[in-house]
Write a structure and sequence with these properties.
The complex is a heterodimer. Helix content of chain A is 29%, strand content 15%. Chain A has helices spanning 24-27, 55-82, 91-94, 99-107, 143-146, 151-155, 181-185, 211-217, 248-254, 312-337, 349-352, and strands spanning 85-89, 114-120, 129-136, 171-172, 175-176, 191-195, 200-201, 203-204, 262-269, 278-284, 295-301. Chain B is elongated. In chain B, β14 (381-382) and β15 form a beta hairpin. Chain B is built from 39 helices and 37 strands. Helices cover 46% and strands 18% of the residues of chain B. In chain B, the strands form seven sheets. A nine-stranded mixed sheet of chain B has the order 16-37-36-35-17-31-34-33-32, with helices on both faces. Chain B has a nine-stranded antiparallel sheet with strand order 19-18-30-29-28-27-26-25-24, with helices on both faces. Classes of the chains: A alpha+beta, B alpha+beta. Chains A and B meet through α2, α5, α6, β4 and α8 of A and α7, α8, β14, α12 and α33 of B.
């Protein structure tokens, strides 16, 4: 309530905004007017641009998309066509028999796991040729799996015991595992050696991982410890005298794949391979994908500006570009056949049928 | 007008008049509206005053006395009372510790702030949902997000709200402190001492002088006036600026020293009824009853009385003003209610998504149950310990259950809880602009538009019915005397700007020049006649004497800049009476002084003193008042003034038949031009008659039982065989711009109903002058006295209306005029349905002579039967009930009290502001809010769906490629600001267009911005966009070495770009603020993503940089945005081409206006007149 004693008694009280008792602004006499200060902002009259979907605008937008998308689509298609890719699934071929036989074979420590594959090069492959292994039906993005790692431990020697997130692979025989967790534990350990008819193909395994990972994520002071010593061997072993930031296979593996079908870089071949050549591959087939029906493939691929061979993007771009062209022409026809005068008040509903509303 | 100025006998309790009347009235009101819930008491009092003909209904505070006398006789029950020992605060507070006088409007103290504020915040369902999700996430089995990330959104919201609440409370603390430390004069040990307000206690005696604010509720003991009158101004209490009289009881008047008064006051427990008070005081073994006229309330200001002394009865928070200090009750907007239904739908979607995930997860687990132990990415067994335990595996059933709960956590933003918070912010912003609109600012009262409630902003854009009060809302409630019919002669002279000589009449008293404060146009002929003496002069003399004396006006002298000149300000509760007294003054009959015993009137320069021998106040049965004057020549005259209906019954028609008929025809003429009419009569009293009257009058005033009834009887006996003096016509001026505003509202297809207490003729004439009624309309008048006749008239009216509708396209418009008596029979009976049918066919509905609760009943008539939104606008306490019942209530902060404003959702100064409010702001608010809700549904659902699709590729395990921080920040930083900014600022059309074509308002009435079609279209669009957004990267990166965080970043950026560009596509008015918010959000998102990716301990370290170096990323991003938005653009273009909405066309016309000018001018000329 206003309790200003000097209020002239006949004044029309400037009604205080809230009427709340003792609200502070009603305690002080108001001499100045309450008229809102004029500004374009408070009157909602800021200068503004009001784009309207005029036929011209619509058609040119669609045309623009057409013009941009079709060339991109074509270039990506061509780029993808130029990529030479050799894929060889070897998991079944290397281990014959039923599922249980395969599992038994792969789990046995003594069985001979060497397997020879030969690949034909249909088209000339220019260096660098990337060697990938591809796993299908391997959920590296599984909740239990992605979380089972300790980035602190990988990075910093002092955080060696920071393994709470690594369960169920945090310790073995009562000692901490470095690197801990399911991700590291399941390290892929098939190896390939490639040769053409006349020479051995060297696979360069340096710098197959991200530089940022080597520099920051994996410590140069951190050495593997107590790794793969538990009751169940998950995959590859690590040389305990090499620091983690130089264990590039591990670094690549630890960058968990987004999708259940994925490739990981194994190495690079830095020579060209001519068409018609046959590549002999000696696979040390150690990694167990048999127990969960995963597939293992060896992939040799050249690369383009878009990466590997993938027609999807090109087709999608062509489709969108084509659709937009179609839409642009359709709208042109619509606007020509049945034009509408923009902003014509006769179209207002109450002008069209004056009787009712 | 209701004049209850008490006569010289101070103990006469005028309120008793009303008591009988009250019961009668309120019972009928109870019938008319069943749910008489809110503030039953105050509505009841309002119901008392049904003096329609005299219109300017002032619910003076004393009037509210709800029969205090009769009630106090019944004894207040002990448990419902408080005992106050006068001047003995110790004893008073002995048994009960009454509250001190310090007030606390603040909610929190330093200690209680945290728990209380949190407690209050969690009253909102939204926050509870947040909390439950956050708690679920803390369970180790369910921890989807990190502990901190999951708590961030909740804590952010809590923090912001707490800071806001804290700041507001700090301001309240400060103002409380100022208030509590003010000083007052209190009797301590028989000496008056200055004491701080907060130290005043119940039972103390307190003294205040003129112009002081009263610190607590006080029962008057004595005042500087020998008769115990004190004048107070209640402007802070109810906004009424006129003076009200309060009385000290005779028993306590200055016969003794104040400090010796001892007594006990027994009164009601504190309540919030500012117009009611009852109690008894025991002084000298005498029981004295106390009523509302004996108490002055905290916040009032003493005026015109040099001092007053009273005893404190209520203090601090228990004072009536503090008890009344509650905010407006909350209403829920229509749009929000609809939205809540859609949100229930969304929760079903959420449940469906979660079920799909959990069922699939169950199936997957079952299929792979033999492989789980050694599967590298599952590995159920934990071999690290001695025993081979299952690690985090709780059995098949529980796993499914946990998956379900986890998916709720992951998909939580499917239910757009943040939307509620955004909506509050948007409404706040909209209110900011409404308040600051200088076209809703009123110069004359210096008042802005006020938003009192924040939750019905968008309802303003969908109003179909406007229920308007008349007096003070359509009209100014500033009465001006226009015409006089004196003794059968109509002095309606040409309206001149003539104010009499030298700018109005003035009187000279003791060398002072006195002028009336308000000037009145005078009739030159009448003025001339007054100056020349002849036979008619006698009647004119009596007529003006009646005007000057027969009222309850108090003249107050106001200083002017000239020390020799003073203005006379006539203060009174009735604007009609004020107008009459000002008119009398202009003609030379200037009321100079009024005390309870006499009046002084300056008659054409001659000061005359009249003794007021008695006064019969106005009551709504008699509808007249009378005053008994003892003239200087010791004759006694009775002057009576009242409504024509009752006055003609008591006028002796045999005396001047032709004059009576002439006056009647003048009256008819006056009311047909919309004037409010009053009839004056008089008679002389012989000494015998006078003695007879005096004895019965005294007997009546001194009687203890049924005083009111006796007094009324005395009055009725006295007021007979009057000779007619004449009649007056007072103009109740229409407010500025009302006819234009009504025309605009009508064009906007809003039905305007006028509900007034005035009589039928006045209502109809105001209807004409405000262009509500036109001569082309067919009027249906329902004016009945029984249920049966009401039924008949309704049936007939329905037949007429059906005929009119079927008679062709240009059906003559119908106007329904119905009066309050008929409504009594119709409302809440089976006839209601018929009335509704009839009313919905009529273009105009005028309800006259309606009681306040009937107003609410009429609003309910519409609300119960349709989904259409209703708006009630009024200015007086009698409008409170309808303002509260309607979907939107608007109070006019004008002449009458603040009651209407206090109960309203919005308050403004002029009726015409309704046009910009509804047509401009309402329209904008509705469009903005409607769009914002749909957009928020879309925005959250598209993100949830992208998460959902990914879950299908993770063996249904609810891992997210999108970083958990991005998930959390998505609705907090990435996309929140633009939607709020657009919700506040985007304008579909300019103010000019909206006002030029009021029909555009129809878009809100037809729910064009928010309906189920739009909802489902939005959902379909969401589905498409999420599919494009998810599957383009999926297919592009299938069989590549892409890692989770990288593709997650792609999805994050794609979705954020997408939803922001989607919004950009729908923005109509691009101001720099909108530009800044949309592009700013995108930049902010990029920055956030980068920041997240430079933290080495997160798995996504450096991902964004690798990604951005890859051409495929950019190709995907552009492809997603274009492909997602194509369907929307195509649909939009097609709709705009084939079915352009009015908004669309008007928008184009705005842009290409110059080209269209000539054409549209043509169109407008041809436009059919509606």
């Amino acid at each position: 309530m206003n309790s200003n004693p000097s209020t002239p008694m006949n004044a029309h009280a400037p009604s205080s905004s809230s009427g709340g008792a003792g609200s502070p602004d009603s305690n002080t006499p108001r001499r100045n007017s309450k008229r809102p200060k004029y500004s374009r902002f408070t009157q909602q009259e800021l200068p503004a641009c009001k784009p309207i979907l005029t036929p011209k605008w619509v058609i040119s937008a669609f045309m623009l998309v057409t013009i941009v998308f079709i060339p991109i689509g074509l270039t990506t298609l061509f780029a993808s066509r130029d990529v030479v890719e050799i894929i060889d699934r070897y998991d079944n071929a290397c281990v014959p028999g039923s599922k249980s036989q395969k599992v038994q074979h792969i789990q046995s420590a003594t069985s001979n796991k060497t397997c020879i594959r030969s690949l034909t090069v249909r088209k000339r492959m220019k260096q660098p040729i990337y060697v990938y292994y591809q796993l299908d039906n391997f959920y590296q993005n599984h909740r239990r799996y992605v979380k089972s790692r300790s980035d602190q431990q990988l990075r910093n020697r002092g955080d060696e015991n920071d393994t709470s997130t690594c369960k169920p692979e945090n310790e073995a025989n009562g000692m901490t595992i470095v690197p801990c967790g399911l991700v590291a534990w399941s390290l892929f350990n098939d190896t390939y050696s490639l040769s053409t008819s006349n020479s051995q193909l060297t696979i360069n395994k340096r710098h197959i991982s991200w530089k940022s990972d080597r520099d920051e994520k994996f410590g140069s002071e951190v050495y593997p410890k107590n790794f793969q010593n538990g009751g169940l061997i998950g995959g590859g072993r690590l040389n305990e005298s090499i620091p983690l930031n130089e264990q590039e296979d591990l670094i690549v593996w630890m960058r968990t794949a987004a999708l259940p079908t994925f490739r990981k870089l194994y190495g690079k071949i830095e020579v060209d391979i001519e068409a018609g050549e046959t590549i002999n591959v000696v696979v040390e087939n150690r990694y167990n994908t048999y127990s969960f029906s995963g597939k293992k493939k060896l992939v040799l691929s050249t690369t383009s500006w878009l990466g590997g061979k993938n027609n999807f993007i090109g087709i999608a771009y062509l489709a969108v570009g084509g659709l937009c062209f179609l839409l642009a022409t359709t709208f042109t026809i619509i606007y020509l056949v049945k034009p509408r005068h923009l902003g014509d008040p006769t179209y207002l509903s109450w002008n069209r049928n004056p009787g009712g509303h | 007008m209701a004049s209850d100025h008490s006569s010289s006998t101070g103990e006469l309790n005028s309120d008793e008049f009303k008591s009988v009347d009250l019961q009668l009235q309120s019972s009928s009101s109870h019938r008319s509206i069943s749910s008489n819930t809110w503030r039953a008491s105050s509505i009841k009092e309002v119901g008392v005053i049904e003096l329609g003909s005299k219109g300017g209904v002032r619910y003076g505070s004393r009037k509210g006395g709800s029969g205090s006398m009769s009630m106090s006789r019944k004894e207040i029950r002990d448990e419902d009372s408080r005992l106050v020992y006068v001047n003995d605060s110790v004893k008073t507070n002995e048994s009960f510790e009454f509250a001190g006088n310090s007030v606390r409007t603040s909610k929190y103290s330093v200690l209680t702030f945290l728990p209380r504020n949190l407690f209050e915040q969690f009253h909102r369902v939204a926050y509870v949902y947040f909390l439950i999700i956050a708690i679920l996430n803390q369970l180790p089995q369910l921890a989807v997000f990190g502990r901190f990330a999951s708590l961030l959104p909740l804590s952010l919201v809590l923090l912001v709200t707490a800071v806001k609440d804290g700041y507001e409370d700090w301001r309240r603390h400060r103002s409380d402190q100022i208030e509590n430390n003010r000083l007052a004069c209190v009797l301590v040990n028989n000496v008056f001492e200055q004491k701080k307000w907060k130290d005043i206690q119940v039972g103390e005696i307190i003294k205040f002088s003129a112009n002081e604010t009263i610190p607590c509720d006080v029962v008057l003991l004595s005042t500087s006036d020998p008769t115990g009158v004190a004048y107070i101004q209640t402007i802070n209490l109810d906004g009424e600026s006129n003076l009200k009289t309060r009385y000290a009881k005779q028993e306590t008047l200055g016969t003794r020293e104040v400090e010796n008064i001892r007594g006990v006051i027994k009164c009601e427990k504190p309540n919030r009824n500012i117009y009611g008070f009852l109690g008894t005081m025991e002084v000298d073994q005498k029981q004295v009853s106390l009523g509302p006229s004996n108490i002055v309330l905290r916040g009032c200001v003493l005026k015109n009385t040099s001092w007053a002394v009273g005893v404190v009865v209520y203090t601090g928070m228990e004072t009536k003003v503090m008890l009344n200090n509650s905010g407006a009750q909350s209403k829920r907007s229509h749009l929000e209610a609809r939205m809540n239904k859609e949100i229930i739908l969304l929760s079903f979607f959420l449940a469906a998504l979660c079920s799909v995930v959990s069922i699939c997860a169950g199936v997957w687990l079952r299929q792979h149950r033999d492989e789980l132990d050694i599967m590298p990415f599952y590995r159920r067994k934990d071999y690290s310990g001695e025993d081979e335990d299952n690690y985090k595996y709780y059995g098949w059933g529980l796993e499914i259950f946990f998956t379900f709960l986890m998916s709720i956590i992951v998909f939580q933003i499917m239910i757009p809880i943040a939307l509620y918070i955004s909506m509050e912010l948007v409404r706040l912003g909209q209110a900011y602009f409404m308040i600051r609109d200088d076209r809703m600012y009123d110069e004359s009262t210096d008042s802005r538009f006020q938003c009192r409630a924040l939750n019905v902003n968008e309802d303003l854009g969908q109003i179909k019915y406007v229920f308007s009060d008349k007096t003070g809302t359509l009209t100014e409630n500033k009465m001006e005397f226009q015409y006089a019919s004196i003794f059968g002669i109509d002095y309606n002279g040409e309206k001149t700007e003539f104010y009499g000589e030298e700018g109005g009449y003035y009187a000279q008293v003791d060398g002072l020049i006195l002028r009336p404060k308000m000037k009145v146009h005078v009739d030159m002929e009448l003025l001339r006649l007054l100056k020349t003496g002849n036979d008619t002069n006698k009647h004119i003399y009596d007529f003006f004497l009646a005007l000057a004396s027969c009222n309850t006006i108090v003249p107050i002298l106001v200083d002017t800049s000239n020390p020799d000149e003073k203005l006379i300000d006539y203060q009174g509760e009735s604007p009609d009476e004020q107008a009459l007294v000002y008119a009398a003054a202009a003609y030379g009959f200037m009321l100079i002084e009024r005390t309870s015993g006499h009046i002084v009137v300056d008659i054409l320069g001659d000061r005359q003193r009249f003794n007021v021998l008695g006064m019969h106040e106005f009551d709504s049965d008699r509808k007249r008042m009378s005053v008994i004057l003892g003239c200087s020549d010791s004759t006694v005259k009775v002057f009576v003034k009242g409504a024509d209906t009752t006055m003609f019954n008591v006028i002796d028609k045999s005396k001047n038949t032709d004059i009576v008929t002439a006056t009647e025809s003048h009256l008819h003429a006056y009311s047909s031009v919309g004037l409010r009419t009053l009839v004056m009569g008089m008679k002389g009293l012989s000494s015998h008659e006078f003695e007879q009257w005096r004895s019965s009058y005294e007997a009546a005033t001194n009687s203890l039982m049924g005083r009111a009834r006796l007094l009324r009887k005395v009055a009725i006996n006295l007021e007979t065989n009057l000779s007619i003096l004449g009649a007056s016509g007072i103009e109740d001026k229409l407010q500025e711009g009302v006819p234009e505003a009504i025309e605009s509202l009508r064009m906007a297809n809003i039905k305007v109903w006028v509900l007034t207490g005035d009589k039928q003729e006045t209502a109809i004439s105001i209807g004409y002058s405000s262009k509500l009624l036109t001569s082309k309309m067919t009027q249906i008048i329902i004016n009945n006295n029984s249920t049966e006749s009401c039924r008949r008239s309704l049936e007939e009216a329905l037949i007429i209306s059906r005929k009119a509708i079927t008679s062709g396209e240009n059906a003559s418009l119908l106007a329904l005029i119905i009066d309050g008596t008929s409504l009594v029979y119709i409302l809440d009976s089976e006839l209601e349905e018929q009335l509704f049918e009839l009313a919905s066919k009529c273009a105009v509905v005028l309800c006259c002579r309606v009681a306040p609760l009937q107003k609410a009943g009429i609003v309910m008539l519409i609300k119960k039967r349709t989904d259409d939104l209703t708006l009630a606008i009024g200015d007086g306490a009698n409008d409170v009930s309808m303002i509260q019942k309607a979907d939107v209530g608007i109070g006019i902060s004008g002449q009458e009290g603040r009651q209407a404003v206090m109960a309203s959702d919005f308050a403004m100064a002029q009726f015409r502001f309704l046009v910009p409010l509804l047509l401009v702001h309402g329209h904008w608010n509705y469009r903005r809010m409607g769009y914002m809700i749909l957009y928020n549904f879309y925005r959250n659902a598209v993100f949830v769906l992208v998460l959902f699709w990914y879950v299908l590729y993770t063996a249904f395990t609810l891992s997210t490629a999108i970083n958990e921080w991005s998930s959390v920040l998505y609705s907090v930083i990435y996309t929140s600001v633009p939607t709020i900014v657009v919700g506040i600022l985007d304008k579909d059309l300019s103010r000019t267009s909206l006002l030029k074509y009021p029909q555009l308002y129809g878009s809100g009435q037809k729910q064009e911005s928010y309906n189920s079609t739009l909802f489902w279209l939005t959902i379909a669009d969401t589905l498409w966009q999420s599919i494009v957004g998810f599957f383009i990267p999926l297919l592009a990166y299938w069989k590549t070495d892409i890692d989770g965080p990288s593709i997650g970043d792609l999805w994050t950026l794609a979705v954020v770009f997408l939803v922001n560009l989607h919004l950009a596509m729908d923005v109509i008015t691009w101001t720099w603020i909108i530009h800044a918010s949309i592009w700013g959000s995108i930049v902010a998102t990029i920055i956030c993503v980068i920041i997240i990716d430079v933290i080495p301990i997160l798995p996504g370290y450096w991902a964004i940089f690798h990604l951005a170096g890859d051409g495929l990323f950019w190709v995907c991003l552009i492809g997603i945005i274009v492909a997602s938005l194509i369907p929307r653009l195509v649909l939009k273009t097609l709709v705009q081409h084939y079915r352009p909405s009015d908004i669309q066309i008007a928008g184009e016309a705005e842009k290409f206006g110059d080209l269209m000018e000539s054409r549209s001018a043509e169109i407008e000329m041809n436009q059919p007149h509606r």
